[in-house]
Write a structure and sequence with these properties.
Number of domains: 2
CATH superfamily of the largest domain: Alkaline Phosphatase, subunit A
Distance between the termini: 60 Å
Order of helices and strands: HEHEHHHEEHEHEHEEEHHEEEHHHEH
CATH architecture of the largest domain: 3-Layer(aba) Sandwich
CATH class of the largest domain: Alpha Beta
Structural class: alpha/beta
Helix content: 25-40%
Number of strands: 13
Length: 459
C-alpha cells in the first residue's frame, strides 16, 4: 500500500473513532438539593428554567444517588468509581489515595481531552485530576469556559466538567424571591431567619440554573450542534437540616438529567437506580473503551439509550464525619421501596457545621428553632430527630418519601428490616468497614457542644 494511501486510511480511521466518542459536558452543582428544582418537584418555588429545558430534551433519573453526602468523599467516588472506603476519602477533607483518581486518565487514554473548571475535586486536590486543562477559578465560569474553548481543536473528543460552588453555604442575600410566599420543607421549623436563609439559598440555585443555560449555549457553538452528551447533577443534598451529612434521601438522592439528541429519549424519565460511582464506567462505555474490572461502579449506558429501565437493585451510602463539627458515622442501604439506616454512634449527638457554628446566612436560625422548642411541640420534635437518633431507622420510601415514620420497631416490617439489615452487614464485611473515626463524638451524656465551642468553618 502506498504510504500516502496508508496515511489517509489511518487518518480516516482515527476520524471515525473520534466521531464515535461523544463530547461530554458534565455540570456539577455544589450542595444542590434534588427537590429544589421544578424538574423534580413541580410545586417547588425554585426557578430553574434551564434545568427544565434540559429535562424536556433528555432523560431525567428519578433515582440517582451519591456515594456519600459530603463534598470530598462524593467527588472522590465519582473520579475513582470506588466507594469512599476503597478510594481513601472516607471523611470529608480527607485526601483520597492518588492512585484511585483514575477517571480522567482512563478517558485521556481513550482519546479524550479533559478540561475542568471551578470546583471539581475538593480544594487543593485539584492537582490530582491531572486533566489537560484545570481552572479552579470559581467565578465567571462562562468566561473561563469560553476562553478555553476558543483556543482548542473542536474535532478532538472533549470531557468538559464544570463545578459550580454557589449553592454551597453560606449563601449571599438575594432578592429574587422577595415577592414569593415561599413554602418551607415541613420537616423544618418555620421562623423568620429560616425563611431568609431558604430565600438566599434558592437565589443561588437560580443563578446556577442561569449559568447551566449559558454553558450549554457556549458548548453548542463550540461543537457546532447539540450532538453532545450534556449532564446536570449535584454532589449531594443542600447544606440544611437533614440534607448534607445525612443518609436520608434529602442528603444522598440527587438530580441527574442527561440530554443527547437522537441518542437519549427526550422528555423521558427512568426509575433505574444509579450511583455516582457509575458515572466513570458509563463514560468509558460510551467512548467504546474498556472499563476497569476492579472498580465498584457499573455502566448505565443502556439506561441512557432507553434500552432498559433497571440498573441497581441496592444503593449503599456511607458517611463517617467532617472534622470536629460533624462526628456521626452512618451507613445505609436502599432499594426501590425501603431504606435501612444504621446510626453507628447513636449514643452521641448528631451535629453539623450548620447547628454548631450558626453562621449568619446559614445556621443562625437554630437559635430561633431552640427558642421555638420551648413552647412548640413541632419544633421540639424536629430538634429531637435532628440531634438524637436511634440505632436503626427503617423507612417505607414509597409511602413515606420524607422519611418521617421510623418503622424499625414495627413488627409488620420485621422481615423486610432483617433482609435489608443483612444486605448492609454483608456489604460492610465485604468492604472491611470498621467505621473509622477521626475524632471523639459528642456523647449524649455530656452537654451539647454550644456554638461558642466552634472555631472555624469549612468549604
Amino acid at each position: 500500500m502506498p504510504r500516502f494511501v496508508y496515511l489517509l486510511t489511518l487518518l480516516t480511521a482515527l476520524q471515525l473513532a473520534a466521531a464515535d466518542k461523544p463530547n461530554i459536558v458534565l455540570y456539577i452543582a455544589d450542595d444542590h438539593g434534588r427537590n429544589d428544582s421544578s424538574v423534580y418537584d413541580p410545586s417547588s418555588d425554585a426557578i430553574t428554567p434551564a434545568m427544565a429545558k434540559l429535562a424536556a430534551a433528555g432523560l431525567t433519573f428519578n433515582q440517582a444517588f451519591v456515594a456519600s453526602p459530603a463534598c470530598g468523599p462524593s467527588r472522590s467516588a465519582l473520579l475513582s468509581g470506588l466507594m469512599p472506603l476503597r478510594n481513601g476519602a472516607e471523611h470529608n477533607h480527607e485526601r483520597p489515595r492518588p492512585e484511585t483518581q483514575t477517571m480522567v486518565k482512563h478517558l485521556q487514554t481513550a482519546g479524550y481531552e479533559v478540561a475542568c473548571f471551578g470546583k471539581v475535586q475538593h480544594g487543593a486536590w485539584a492537582k490530582l485530576l491531572d486533566a489537560d486543562h484545570v481552572d479552579p477559578t470559581r467565578t465567571n465560569l462562562e468566561k473561563s469556559v469560553q476562553t478555553y474553548l476558543d483556543s482548542r481543536d473542536p474535532e478532538k473528543p472533549l470531557l468538559l466538567i464544570v463545578g459550580d460552588v454557589r449553592t454551597h453555604a453560606p449563601w449571599r442575600k438575594h432578592n429574587t424571591y422577595d415577592d414569593v410566599n415561599l413554602t418551607l420543607p415541613s420537616h423544618w421549623v418555620d421562623t423568620p431567619d429560616t425563611r431568609q436563609t431558604w430565600e438566599n439559598y434558592l437565589g443561588e440555585v437560580t443563578e446556577v440554573d442561569t449559568t447551566i443555560g449559558n454553558i450549554d449555549a457556549i458548548a453548542r457553538a463550540h461543537f457546532g450542534s447539540d450532538d453532545f452528551l450534556s449532564i446536570y447533577t449535584s454532589d449531594h443534598g443542600h447544606a440544611l437540616p437533614f440534607g448534607k451529612w445525612n443518609l436520608y434521601d434529602w442528603g444522598t438522592q440527587v438530580a441527574f438529567i442527561a440530554r443527547w439528541p437522537g441518542r437519549i429519549p427526550a422528555n423521558a424519565r427512568t426509575d433505574a437506580m444509579i450511583s455516582w460511582i457509575d458515572i466513570f464506567p458509563t463514560f468509558l462505555d460510551l467512548a467504546g473503551a474498556d472499563v476497569p474490572a476492579n472498580i465498584d461502579g457499573r455502566s448505565f449506558a443502556s439506561v441512557l439509550r432507553g434500552e432498559t429501565d433497571q440498573h441497581r437493585e441496592l444503593i449503599f451510602t456511607t458517611h463517617s464525619g467532617d472534622g470536629k463539627m460533624n462526628i456521626y458515622p452512618i451507613r445505609a442501604v436502599r432499594d426501590q421501596r425501603f431504606k435501612y439506616i444504621r446510626n453507628i454512634r447513636f449514643d452521641a449527638y448528631h451535629t453539623t457545621h450548620t447547628d454548631i457554628q450558626r453562621r449568619p446566612g446559614h445556621g443562625a436560625f437554630f437559635n430561633e428553632w431552640e427558642a421555638a422548642a420551648l413552647t412548640d411541640p413541632h419544633a421540639q420534635a424536629v430538634l429531637q430527630k435532628y440531634h438524637r437518633r436511634p440505632a436503626v431507622e427503617f423507612y417505607d420510601i414509597v409511602n413515606d418519601p420524607q422519611e418521617t415514620t421510623n418503622l424499625a420497631t414495627n413488627p409488620a416490617y420485621s422481615t423486610d428490616l432483617a433482609r435489608m439489615a443483612q444486605h448492609l452487614e454483608t456489604w460492610m464485611t465485604a468492604h472491611h468497614d470498621n467505621v473509622s473515626m477521626q475524632h471523639q463524638p459528642y456523647l449524649l451524656s455530656e452537654p451539647y457542644p454550644r456554638p461558642a465551642n466552634a472555631k472555624s468553618g469549612s468549604k
